[in-house]
Design a protein that fits this description.
Helix content is 78%, strand content 0%. The longest helix has 31 residues, at 3-33. The protein is mostly helical and 275 residues long. It has 12 helices and no strands.
Amino acid sequence: MSDADNKGGSSNDESSRHGADLTSDLVMALRFFSRLPTGTRLHTVPNLDRIARILPLASLLIGLGPACVLLLGVVGGISPLFAAIAASACSAIVTGAMREDAAADAADGLFGGNTAERRLEILKDSRHGTYGVLTIVFIVGLKAAALSALAVHGGLAVAALWLAAGLLARSGGLYVAMALPPARTAGASASAGRLSRNAFGLGLVVAFVVALLLAVPFVSPLGLVVAGVVAAVVALGWTRLCDRLVGGQTGDLIGALQALLEIALLAAFMTMIAG
């Protein structure tokens, strides 16, 4: 066999391994953030660096079904509020309502304890208190209200903007995992490791570019920048709060930030969308 054949074979093997790695990363991200079927691959310990880089693609797959439900509902002449609630229910099924559950746990933990240790203990409790229940009501209600308001601009507009918001919220929500160390030595966040700046930055840039392509027919590039600034303020504020109250981050605090960012981005789109 010639040297050229050897090089060609090595190149093909390397390409195959790279493709397999990307598929593994995508499966890992889908399992971490959704309940979508991912086949019979063995479950591996999640790695936030690998998840962050592939997350924009995973977010598209996670958000596509609910966005289509919303699109069909609006185009079909159903009440915008009904379509928004139905699509939100579809999203909860696809994601296992993990963000809503995380936000509820975060509200109970951060505001229901007097010390960092007690707050972390409450965060581990799967039962929801008053803060948690109200948080779920507020998040679901605000999201449905925002989607129904955006729906007056057409089914395609609201579906595209919801996908864009989901992309930015899911990737941007990892900021707290990059900025803060795990607050506990055990748990999903601790096992996934500390997120590097490079992986977070790459994932966020890709998410922003895809979100720009989705949103720019309906929101000006300046409007998307404004939405990004709003999201950055929310992320920085939430990270500072988590650092002050528990001295780090957990999986619930990451998921809660993603839920908050989605609401903030949808609200920004409501004010910036072209008439």
